[in-house]
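wait is this the right file?? whatever heres the structure
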């Protein structure tokens, strides 16, 4: 007869067989069969959390760092709901998160009994599959999944929870490793090649999976068209791409398309961050687009030619000959020089601070928070460096769970820096909990404290959106026993820092606004 412990063991064995190496465990009473089995019996690396939201986002970071599925195990009730934000991000970023929730027996559903909620279906669209296991239904296999979305495994345990002896040793079957390589198709290669035969495109490159960066770098270096390389592509500042790389920001992209120097766009990787992408819905809706991503999301409501195999693009032997780009590249360089002058003129602006921060990071690892950091990186980070690893959570663009994802993503092979907004930081204050369990202590968190959500200042120009405050972060650092630094100008910035620290940067709001106004003015004058 099956027992709770046997059922839990079956689930864990299937994880092991699938190639899961790491589990984020959020202990409670209902999931005690899992907790006891994970107390030294299974060869998983187990991270312990008291808070499920952080656990979910940390797990996403681990998926990105290890390229393997990672499991999070929660108890029942609202604990399960705390995983929803990570499930959403996992869906749009196509990260294989396995969410395992413990539940009371099925007969309790709808009863309102303590810590009993309707768990099955709680993740609605944001899962590829649900398993609802109990003593009668013990069939559990992860074999035929595509892994393009998270998975929910709900496991009902009956009373008493510990209904058999905890084994002292277990035998494990062989690993059956999951691969995430998307199927390539000859048809895709042919269709992609024919687009290049009839078009003179501009390439916009968003988030690329780490393993695609090198082959994509080679491909783009032979392509011969202007390249807009966003930070999370990992190719911004790549030495082999410099001659074609655009640094003039959104406005140069608009100019290239408006003047029809390029007659189309090839969008590569994740949905682009640049605001120009939204223009393809209206102002630029006639521009043909070839979209090649790592999942099926295009980020547009209109139909475009879309392929989900980056490998097929890399294999297409294509080259673009467009002599008209020479002039445009010169305009880009001129605009870039103007922007460099602005950085010098307004050294206390956010952009100048981001530039100086990027010069501290050089070629280390960097994780960018949503909202302004990821945008300001694209505008202002030094073009002379290409970080070893760079990432941002651009699936659903949430400002939640960013620090936890950064911790999951950090690796010991280099210094790991991060750049977050102040509200984004406040969203994830319990994230440092996990640090004592991590393999690396190479962690430097940069916070741009501009006293609120300043991205809204530029969209609405109304205070009500900003959530302005005068909070500073030294006490947060103290709470977690991290060293803390305050930088208010680029002169104060240094790499002479402890291995692990929090750095609060306080830019001058007025200088930031003036820099942006002058930059807008530059493009208004450029007719
Ligand atoms: C979970 C979530 N809630 C709300 C938002 C909407 N939102 C986008 S940016 C932002 C403000 C971010 O402020 P901050 O982190 O200080 O960065 P800044 O805009 O100043 O760069 C908010 C609330 C979101 N993206 N995600």
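ok assuming it is, sequence goes like this
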């Amino acid at each position: 007869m099956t027992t709770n412990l046997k059922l839990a063991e079956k689930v864990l064995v299937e994880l092991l067989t699938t190639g899961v190496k790491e589990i984020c465990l959020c202990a409670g009473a209902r999931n005690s069969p899992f907790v006891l089995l994970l107390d030294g019996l299974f060869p998983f690396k187990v991270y312990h959390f008291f808070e499920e939201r952080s656990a979910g986002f940390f797990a996403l970071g681990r998926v990105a760092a290890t390229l393997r599925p990672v499991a999070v195990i929660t108890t029942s009730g609202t604990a399960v709901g705390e995983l929803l934000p990570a499930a959403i991000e996992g869906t749009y970023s196509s990260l294989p998160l396995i969410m395992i929730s413990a539940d009371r027996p099925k007969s309790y559903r709808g009863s309102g009994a303590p810590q009993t909620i309707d768990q099955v279906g709680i993740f609605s669209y944001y899962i590829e599959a649900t398993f609802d296991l109990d003593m009668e239904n013990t069939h559990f296999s992860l074999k035929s999944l595509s892994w393009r979305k998270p998975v929910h495994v709900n496991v009902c345990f009956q009373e008493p929870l510990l209904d058999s002896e905890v084994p002292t040793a277990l035998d494990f079957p062989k690993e059956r490793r999951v691969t995430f390589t998307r199927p390539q198709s000859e048809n895709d290669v042919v269709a992609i090649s024919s687009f290049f035969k009839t078009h003179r495109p501009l390439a916009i490159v968003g988030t690329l999976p780490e393993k695609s960066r090198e082959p994509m770098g080679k491909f783009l270096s032979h392509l011969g068209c202007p390249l807009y390389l966003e930070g999370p592509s990992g190719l911004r500042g790549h030495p082999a791409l410099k001659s074609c790389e655009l640094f003039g920001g959104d406005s140069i992209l608009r100019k290239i398309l408006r003047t029809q120097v390029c007659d189309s766009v090839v969008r590569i990787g994740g949905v682009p961050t640049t605001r120009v992408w939204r223009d393809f819905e209206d102002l630029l809706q006639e521009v043909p687009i070839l979209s090649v991503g790592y999942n099926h999301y295009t980020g547009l409501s209109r139909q475009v030619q879309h392929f989900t195999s980056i490998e097929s693009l890399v294999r297409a032997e294509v080259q673009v000959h467009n002599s008209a780009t020479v002039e445009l590249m010169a305009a880009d360089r001129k605009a870039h020089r103007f922007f460099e002058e602005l950085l010098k003129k307004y050294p206390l602006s956010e952009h100048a601070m981001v530039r100086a921060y990027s010069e501290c990071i050089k070629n280390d690892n960097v994780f960018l928070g949503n909202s302004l950091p990821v945008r300001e990186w694209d505008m202002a980070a030094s073009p002379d460096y290409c970080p070893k690893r760079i990432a941002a959570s651009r699936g659903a663009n949430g400002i939640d769970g960013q620090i936890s994802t950064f911790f999951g993503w950090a690796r010991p092979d280099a210094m790991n820096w991060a750049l977050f907004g102040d509200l984004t930081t406040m969203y994830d204050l319990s994230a440092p909990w996990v640090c004592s369990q991590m393999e690396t202590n190479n962690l430097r968190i940069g916070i741009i404290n501009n006293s609120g959500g300043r991205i809204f200042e530029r969209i609405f120009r109304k205070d009500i959106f900003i959530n302005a405050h005068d909070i500073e972060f030294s006490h947060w650092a103290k709470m977690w026993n991290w060293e803390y630094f305050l930088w208010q100008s680029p002169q104060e910035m240094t790499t002479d820092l402890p291995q692990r620290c929090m750095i609060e940067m306080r830019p001058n709001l007025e200088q930031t606004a003036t820099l942006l106004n002058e930059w807008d003015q530059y493009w208004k004058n450029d007719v």
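Residues 370-372, 397-400, 421-424, 450, 452-455 surround thiamine diphosphate (CB under 6 Å). so i think its the right one actually
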